[in-house]
Amino acid sequence: MTEAAQTEGPLDRLVAADAKRAIAMLLWKNRHANPELNVQITEQDIKGFDDCVEYLDVDPEVRIFRPAGRPAEAPREALPPTKANPNGVPAFPGRPGDPPRNFVLVGLYVAGTNDAFKPIENNEADKDKADRAEALRRAKEQANAIANQVRNDALAGTFSASSVCDVCDALLLLAKS
To answer: Mean pLDDT for the chain?
Structure first.
């Protein structure tokens, strides 16, 4: 092992490793939703992806990187007041730089830029899946509030049809996902 490899941490080693290591980490990170640790890719998936990037006219690029920290700032002397800035500019003692962030990002970007892109679903089945996923995300976001509302209604003996319907909608959504 080289001296540089000995001093860098696991995040730096992940960035420098073969992309298969990052893919393994993506599967592992999603292990609770996907305990089989696999994703099936079909010819239809490939066609859908190709159609999407062609429609959006983007060249996709997978990037595996560790975001940089904030650079150091040099001290700054106070500047006297001027007509345009009657209070002047106060002195600034400077600050040390921050280290690189404590995580690695794996993302799909437009090649040569830092821009992500939002996939466009090109058929009804994919659109329906995307809509269900968005509805599930919203339901998870609201689940705590709905559960507390229904519990409070039950304790007070004041059920609202709206609260019961919200619970039923959430349960139906979970059953379909």
So the answer is: 85
The answer to whether residues 111 and 145 belong to one domain is no
- Parallel/antiparallel/unpaired status of strands 105-110 and 60-65: antiparallel
Sequence length of the chain is 177
Alpha carbons 133 and 141: distance in angstroms, whole number: 12
The answer to the question of residue 83 being in a domain is no
pTM of the predicted protein model: 0.62
pLDDT in tens, 40-91: 999 988 998 998 899 899 999 999 999 999 999 888 887 888 888 788 778 7
Asked if residue 65 is part of any domain, the answer here is yes
160 and 103 in a common domain:
no
Q: Do 116 and 107 meet the contact criterion of CB atoms below 8 Å apart?
A: yes
Per the domain annotation, does 36 fall within a domain?
yes
Asked whether residue 90 is domain-assigned, the answer is no
